[in-house]
């Protein structure tokens, strides 16, 4: 199974390198559209190789997706934590009630009662 994982990683790495080599041309990225940049009297732009733009866009999409999913699952995680706290509280209460039930009895008889 480990070799299959390494094979998948190698294939993915070869694909990324081939995309990077095929898209080495420098492109100009503008921060604002030309219509909007005229309103602000500035036109910021940056020169980058195209593969950096492509891979950066993929990474930003993954990051936004991870954050979005983490925020979406917040309610579920909070509910799971609440249920875990309630379960711990009930277990403590059950142990306390068992201890009260067997108070004053012989230890062996109390163990036999718990087992049945």
TrEMBL record:
<keyword id="KW-0812">Transmembrane</keyword>
<keyword id="KW-0175">Coiled coil</keyword>
<feature type="transmembrane region" description="Helical">
    <location>
        <begin position="46"/>
        <end position="68"/>
    </location>
</feature>
<keyword id="KW-1003">Cell membrane</keyword>
<protein>
    <submittedName>
        <fullName>Phosphoribosylanthranilate isomerase</fullName>
    </submittedName>
</protein>
<dbReference type="GO" id="GO:0005886">
    <property type="term" value="C:plasma membrane"/>
</dbReference>
<keyword id="KW-1133">Transmembrane helix</keyword>
<dbReference type="InterPro" id="IPR010445">
    <property type="entry name" value="LapA_dom"/>
</dbReference>
<feature type="domain" description="Lipopolysaccharide assembly protein A">
    <location>
        <begin position="46"/>
        <end position="101"/>
    </location>
</feature>
<keyword id="KW-0472">Membrane</keyword>
<feature type="coiled-coil region">
    <location>
        <begin position="77"/>
        <end position="114"/>
    </location>
</feature>
<dbReference type="Pfam" id="PF06305">
    <property type="entry name" value="LapA_dom"/>
</dbReference>
<dbReference type="GO" id="GO:0016853">
    <property type="term" value="F:isomerase activity"/>
</dbReference>
<keyword id="KW-0413">Isomerase</keyword>
């Amino acid at each position: 199974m480990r070799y299959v994982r390494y094979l998948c990683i190698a294939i993915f790495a070869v694909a990324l390198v081939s995309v990077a080599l095929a898209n080495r041309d420098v492109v100009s990225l503008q921060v604002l559209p030309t219509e909007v940049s005229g309103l602000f009297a500035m036109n910021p732009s940056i020169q980058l190789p195209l593969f950096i733009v492509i891979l950066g866009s993929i990474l930003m999409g993954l990051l936004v997706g991870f954050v979005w999913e983490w925020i979406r699952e917040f309610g579920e995680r909070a509910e799971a934590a609440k249920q875990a706290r309630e379960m711990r509280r009930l277990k403590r209460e059950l142990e306390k009630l068992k201890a009260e039930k067997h108070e004053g009895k012989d230890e062996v008889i109390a163990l036999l009662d718990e087992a049945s």
